[in-house]
Structure formats: structure tokens, C-alpha cells
Please model this.
Amino acid sequence: MHGINESLDFQPVRIAILVMSDTRTLDTDTSGKVLADRIEDAGHVVADRKIVPDDKAAIRAQVSTWIADPDVDVVITSGGTGLTGRDVTPEAITPLFDKVIDGFSVIFHQVSYQSVGLSTLQSRAIAGVASGTFVFCLPGSNGAVKDGWDKVISLQLDSRHKPCNLVELMPRLMEHMEHDH
Model:
């Protein structure tokens, strides 16, 4: 069986949302609101929500703060994954990764292709594990955020998803890290 096993208990996770924008505020940020609403509707907790400019240092600093915080299980970012000079999210966040989740980009692009066709080539959506925290970097459009959350991330963050999900890995993400120090 694969999919949601309704007979199992749901385990909420704490998710921080970071939107990269030089112009948006929390009031005008639609993609962050879409994510926050969907996270809460799914039964998870929005641990924090912030907007930072398209600036490598600012992005890395905020994500670093959250991955060091035991009250944040997952970080989802929106924006800055394109190909223009202002798009620096992957460059800001990739150095923080202990492991890259290569399959996320592959699956995200398959899902995105259904919505936007070959335009999905212009996105550099990535994911990884950083200091025991899952980090997903989505494009900034509402459509990309909906596709990323609804069709990929929400299912892997549902503890009832079988044959496996990311939630059941959370207690084990730091296993060898603790022995290395």
C-alpha cells in the first residue's frame, strides 16, 4: 500500500516559512500565506514566518537560526530559485545542507511540469537536511507553492504516509552527527 493510512495517528510537525522578496510584506505576501494556511489546515504548526530580501547573507542567517532551533522541525522557503541575478536561494542554503534530497527536485519538476510545462526548467527547487532539520526551497509563485506543498511535501510530512515518510526519520537524522563530535 502507498498513500495515507487513516488508521495511524497523525504527528504534527513545526514548520517555519521563509519568503524571499525585496518588495513583499507579511500583508502582501500571498505565497507565504498560502503555505501557512495549508500547513495549519493539514494539522501542522507554523513555528515562524518571515520575509527577507533576496540577499544571500540574510537568507542563510535566517535559515541557520531556524535549523539551530529545536522548536523548528522543517523549513520551507518560497522564492529566489529562478535564474536571474537576484535569485540566490539555492546558493544561500545549499552550503548548510548535510545531505541533499535529490529526489525532491526530480519529483517537484514532474509535478510542476503538469502545471507549467517546460517553464519548470526555470526553477531550481531544492531540498536537504541541515542539522537534523528538513529544508525545502520552492519557487515564489502561488502555483509552485501549491504544487510543492499539495503534491509532494505535505504527503512526506504526513506521519501516516506509507510505505514511508520523512516524519518517521526525524528522530534519526542526527544519529551519526552526535558521534562525530
The two ends are 39 Å apart (CA to CA). Helices lie at 30-41, 56-67, 89-93, 102-116, 142-156, 175-180. The first strand starts at residue 3 and ends at 4.
